[in-house]
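haha ok so turns out i had the wrong file open the whole time. this is the CORRECT one, sorry everyone. sequence first:
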Amino acid sequence: MKAELLIKGEEAWNLASELVQLTGDSLESVVVTALRERFEREQARKERHERIMAITREIAMSAA
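then structure:
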């Protein structure tokens, strides 16, 4: 089974093309890398938020 990704937006296409030129990597590689990096940042952000909320709950419980 082959998956495809269609890039319709001009800005997205231009950015991806520029990354290909800068890195010498394939279009697939630059898209996967960009998605992976964004995923990792968002995952880390979510984990930080969850830690902050846990600390906040802990403080609230000890103050009560």
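The chain is about 80% helix and 0% strand.
again sry for the mixup
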